[in-house]
Design goal:
Layout: E1 2-6, H1 22-35, H2 37-44, E2 49-51, H3 63-74, E3 80-82, H4 99-104, E4 109-111, E5 116-121, E6 124-128, H5 140-145, E7 154-160, H6 178-187, E8 192-196, E9 202-203, E10 210-212, E11 230-236, E12 245-251, E13 256-263, H7 267-279, E14 286-296, H8 298-312, E15 317-320, E16 326-329, H9 343-357, H10 362-377
Parallel strand pairs: 1-2, 2-3, 3-4, 6-7, 7-8, 8-10, 13-14, 14-15, 14-16
Antiparallel strand pairs: 1-11, 5-6, 9-10, 11-12
Length: 383
């Protein structure tokens, strides 16, 4: 038996930094990743798809988001089992019980809307642990595992949330206890655990049967989400009483959220940064966050700004990670001595240089900006 394990589609997600046509393209890519599961399922011969929570970004979605999302699920063509998670719980405002969803839900889409066993076919069950609020006060998984028998039924547990061994807050009441998962696996009451909530592909424990698939399309930068963009192809050998499992990851995502750390102290460093950005492919599907440190002359800072302006037009988004950027700007000796101006104008420039060198207060920042503007006006502010 073969199926696809995916999670955290978060359809309807917006990223505040995406402007212009980037946000619509990003939203379309997320839907395309869902619809594209149909081709992958056909290729590998998957019987069904499980989505381990957070199908939608939240419960309050525009009608067109719900309609387009359902069409993407329809395109998969095989049964798709949706688990409500913390973003889209089965509460009073649930998207899953709304008029639009219930009216337009395709025949191949099933919401795992009650905790416990769901019969898929003879000999195969999904054991589901849906969220009914954004803050459960118990381990939902422990509740559905309790009392499961060891028999000839193949069971896939579909759950959402943090596992205790990976979460620094060990006292959170909703944490999934790995020891209980591994006990159920070792006893043969559960044969595979499909988890959602962690957006990077992650194997949990040592059994090889407990996995986070991660999100099929990136949602955050690589320091938070190092390995997104995957779907898992899961094989369970139902002819063997031990139900051996094989898991294969397939990359389906196309967008990248990248963090670059770069030291910039000279014009050469700025040139190197530009070369690195230039070599990156598929810029229209890349979001780049720059953590820059260094000390620059006013001329070099103007060149850096010109470089960033150029590549910001090419990438889906490119900008500074302000919290990790530390750039000092200090006029270099003689930097403004050959501008060909004299009299009061030269005296004004000298005063700006002195103010810029005086520190990093507001006046110094204003002086830096004025000097940079002066360089652009005289044609020396381009990279």
């Amino acid at each position: 038996m073969r199926f696809l394990h995916t999670a955290d589609w978060q359809l309807g997600m917006t990223r505040h930094f995406l402007a212009g046509d980037a946000q619509p393209r990003y939203s379309a890519a997320r839907r395309d990743a869902v619809a594209g599961l149909g081709a992958l399922a056909a290729e590998v011969g998957a019987e069904f798809v499980v989505v381990a929570g957070d199908v939608f970004e939240h419960n309050q979605l525009a009608p067109h988001v719900i309609g387009q999302s359902l069409e993407a699920m329809r395109a998969i063509g095989i049964p798709v089992y949706l688990l409500p998670g913390n973003h889209d719980p089965l509460d009073a405002s649930s998207v899953y019980t709304g008029t639009l969803f219930t009216a337009e839900c395709p025949d191949n889409v099933v919401v795992l809307d009650h905790a416990g066993v769901h019969e898929i076919r003879p000999g195969l069950q999904i054991v589901a642990a849906p969220w009914r609020s954004k803050a459960p006060t118990t381990d939902l998984v422990a509740e559905v595992l309790d009392g499961l028998p060891k028999d000839d039924i193949t069971r896939v547990l579909v759950a959402h949330g943090g596992v205790d061994v990976l979460d620094p807050d060990r006292d959170k009441p909703s944490l999934i206890r790995l020891a209980e998962l591994e006990d159920a696996v070792s006893r043969g009451t559960i044969h595979y655990v499909a988890l959602g909530d962690k957006h990077s592909l992650t194997a949990v424990g040592g059994s090889g049967r407990v996995w986070y698939s991660g999100t099929p399309e990136v949602t955050n930068f690589d320091d938070v989400e190092p390995d997104p963009g995957h779907v898992l192809v899961v094989d369970i050998d139902e002819t063997d009483p031990r139900r051996p499992v094989t898991v294969e990851s397939r990359r389906v995502g196309h967008w990248r959220f990248i963090t670059l750390h770069h030291q910039v102290d000279t014009s050469r460093d700025i040139t190197d940064l530009g070369l690195n950005l230039d070599l990156m492919t598929e810029k229209d599907r890349a979001v780049v966050r720059l953590a820059l440190t260094g000390s620059l002359s006013v001329t070099d800072r103007a060149a850096l700004d010109a470089c960033l302006d150029k590549y910001a037009r090419l990438f889906a988004w490119l900008g500074l990670w302000e919290r990790h950027t530390d750039l000092a700007v200090m006029p270099a000796d003689g930097e403004f001595s050959d501008l060909g101006i004299g009299g009061f104008a030269a005296a004004a420039v000298d005063e700006l240089v002195a103010t810029a060198r005086a520190g990093d207060n507001e006046s110094a920042v204003d002086a830096h900006a004025a000097l940079a503007l002066l360089l652009r006006l005289v044609g020396r502010g381009a990279a």
